[in-house]
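Field notebook, page 635. I keep forgetting to write these up properly, so this time I am using the form the group agreed on. The chain and the ligand, dinuclear copper ion, are recorded exactly as supplied. Prediction of the bound pose follows.
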Amino acid sequence: MADRKSDPKTPELEDVGRRDFLKGSVAIGAGAVGLAAMACQPEDAARNANPDASESHAGQQGGLDPHVPPGKLDDYYGFWSGGQSGEIRILGVPSMRELKRIPVFNRDSATGWGSDDFSKDLLGGRTCGDTHHVHLSYTDGTYDGRYVYVNDKMAARLARVRCDTMEVDRITDIPNSQGTHGIFPQRHKTGLVLCNAEFRTPQPNDGRDLRDPAAYGAMHTAIDGETMEVQWQVLVESNMDLCATDYKGKYSFATCYNSEGGTDLAGMMAADRDHLYVFNLAAIEAAVAEGKTIKVGDSSVPVVDARGEDGPYVVRVPIPKSPHGVNIDPTGRYAMCCGKLSPTVSIVDIDKLDDVFAGKIEPRDAVVGEPEVGLGPLHTAFDGRGNAYTSIFIDSVITKWSIDKAIAAFNDETIDPIIQKIDVHYQVGHTNASMSETKDADGNWLVALCKFSKDRFLNVGPLHAENDQLVDISGDEMKLVHDGPTFSEPHDCVIVTRDLIHPSKIMKRDGPRFDYYAAMAAEDGVDLLVDNKVIQKGPGKVRVYMTSVAPVFATGEFTVKSGDEVQLILTNLDSVEDLSHGMCVSKHDVNFLVNARDTKSATFTAGAPGVYWYYCPWFCHALHLEMRGRMFVEA
Ligand code: K7E
Ligand code: CUA
C-alpha cells in the first residue's frame, strides 16, 4: 500500500486513484459506493492471488498456528451474528470451523425453533429477523460466561441466549423504536443492555407527524440484562447507529450519522460533522427515579426527553462525517469513533467527559486524536498492547495504528501513527480481535468480516459467500492466514477464550421453557419424565405426552379425530451426551429436536382421516429408522 501520511486533523480527501471513488459516491449516491467496491477488485485480486498458507505455521517468523488438527479443540469460542438469517453462529477460532447455529429470530427446520410451542410464543408470530451485534454479559470488565445478547434490527427486539444451553430464553420488544441497531451491555457487571434506534420515527408513531421529519426522534433504550425488562428510554432528536459502554458504568455511547435529520441519502450526508452521543447514566437514572420523565404512546416505560441541546443527560461530541463504529479500548480510557465518510478515527478521551458534562470544556475538547486511517473506516479492534486495528471498507484494508502515537500526532504532524495496512478481501465491515471488547484483550487473532468474496471461492451463483478472514496479530506484522466463507451475513463477532464458557452437555430442565412445561404437566397431573398419556382436553383438543429412549418412542400409536388440535409433548429420557431425538409427523409440518433430557412440544391440526407415521429425524441408534409410530386419524 502507498504511504498515506497526511495531516491528521484535516480529513479532506486529496489523493487520486481509488480515493476518487469516494468523492464520486458522495456526489452521486449509494449506487456509486457499490461501483467503487467493484472497481478495486481486480487490482486486489492480482496482488493477493494464491497466498501461501504454510508460511503462517508455528515457528516461522513467530507466527501462531491457525491449523487445529483433527480431534483437537479451538482456543476460542467465536460468537457471530447471522445478519439476514436472523440467527447466531458459534465458530471455533482459529480453525474457523462452524460449530453451531443458534436460531433466534428465524424459523429453523432442524431444531423446530419458531414452530415448537415455546419459541412460537416467544416470537409472537414473527418468522424472520436481522441480527447485527452479539455481545456477552460482563462482570468486572470481562466476559462472565452467562448470556449472549443480540439485536433484531428488523423488528426492534433484543434476544438473550443462555450460555449453558446455548438457546434463546428471552426476547424483549423495544417500544417506540425502529431499526434497533447498536447494542452494548454494561461492562462492570451484568447490568443494563443499551440499544440504539437507528431510524427516527414520530413519537409516538401512531399516525401523527407522518410527513414531518422535523418532529421525528429516536430512543436510546436500557434493558435490564437479568430480567430483560425495559427500564427506561432517552429520546434524542437524531438517529443512533453503533453503541458502546464504558468500563465503569458511568456512560453509554451512540454514534449519529444523520444529525441532519435527512430522510434521503443526500440529506443524511449533507453535514460535515455529525456527533457521538454520550449518555450520563447516573443523571438519567436520577431523572427516572424523580419522575422527570414522559410517557410515549401506549408504552409505560419512563422516557427522559433529551432532544435539542446538550444538558445533564446527553452531550454531543462533534465527529466528522457520518460516523459508524464506536469501540472502547481495553484500558477503558478511549472511545474510537470511525468516520465512515471521513478517513479518520476520532479518539474521545472518556476521562474528559465529566468536564464536558460540567460545562468546563467544550464537547469537541474531549477529542484528543484523529488519525487518518484510510477510506471508509467502520470499526476498531484492539490487541491490549496499545494498538488499534480499524476496518476500512472502501480501501479493503485493516489499518493497524498506535493509540499513543495518534494522540501525540494530534499536535505534531511529523508523527505517523500508522503501523501497517493489510489487504482484506473484500469490503470489510466489522473487525474484531480475541477478547478485544474486554480489559483482557490478548492480541492473538483478528477477524475481518468481509462483505464481498467475489473470486476468493468457487462460484456458487449470484449470491456469494461472505469472507471472514483470519489475521494473526501476535507479531509486529499482521499476517493473513485463512479465508473463512460464511453464509449471509454475519455483521459482527466476538472472540472469547474457551475457559470462560461452560455449556452443559445434557439439558438442565430449568428456565422459562421448563416453567412452561411444568405448568402444563401440573395442570394435567402428568410426570414428564415418566408418563405416556393421551389426554382429551375438551372437544377437539388432545394432548399427547410421550417419552423416548433410543430407539423407541414409548407411545407406538395414538388416535385422534380429523380436525383435532393436537399438542404433542415429547421428553427424551436418554442421559447420554450427544444423543438427541426429535419428532417428525408425516404431512403435518411438524419437525422438532429434543436433546438429551429435554422436553419439547408442537401443536398442529390433525389432517384428513388416515394413518400418519411419526418418526425420529435425528440419527440416534442403529435402529434409528425403526424409531417411529402411527397416528390414527379417524373421521
Ligand atoms: Cu457496521 Cu450493523 Cu455493526 Cu454491519 S453494522 S458492518
Ligand atoms: Cu431417535 Cu433417531
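OBSERVATIONS:
- Residues 238 and 259 are 5 Å apart (CA to CA).
- Confidence is low (pLDDT under 50) at residues 1-60.
FOLLOW-UP: compare against the apo run.
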